[in-house]
Design a protein that fits this description.
The chain is of the alpha+beta class and about 130 residues long. The chain has one domain. It is about 25% helix and about 35% strand. The longest helix is centred in the middle third of the chain and has 17 residues. The radius of gyration is 14 Å and the shape is globular. It starts with 6 loop residues before the first strand and ends in a 13-residue tail after the last strand.
Length: about 130
């Protein structure tokens, strides 16, 4: 499986990750967060959903700000320091994630997978197995 350079895009009214949040009872927890933290968490869930597939496996974790702080302006977060983990491997990605005004659902997401992060870099980047 090759993910480097893969671009995933979704222009949607409600990303499936929002259904995951609602189904798992995450909404009440999200509502307790400040709006900026909520935006980051909702984008994390959206990236997990967007990078998961039945064929290639489920993304176990995703953090848009794992390697570099997200640039947040209004309802949009952008950056190049995201990381997600699938099948025990970490992948670095850049992204743009726009959410609804209440920061509870994504409306647009673009993810570009840049590379698999070598195991030798995990400790320095605070990534864990």
């Amino acid at each position: 499986m090759r993910l480097d350079g893969l671009i995933l895009s979704a222009l949607i009214s409600t990303l499936p990750a929002a259904a995951i949040a609602a189904d798992s009872g995450v909404d009440p927890s999200l509502k307790r967060l400040d709006p900026q933290t909520r935006l980051v968490q909702v984008c994390d869930l959206a990236v997990m959903d967007e990078t998961s597939s039945r064929k290639d496996g489920i993304t176990e974790r995703a953090f848009i700000d794992a390697l570099h702080r997200a640039h947040i302006e209004g309802d949009t977060a952008q950056g190049d320091g995201g990381a997600f983990r699938r099948k025990g491997e970490w992948y670095e990605f850049s992204y743009s994630c726009t959410v609804t005004p209440d920061h509870m659902r994504t409306t647009e997401l673009t993810v570009e997978v840049k590379r698999r992060v070598p195991h030798a870099e995990w400790a320095a980047k605070d990534l864990y197995p």
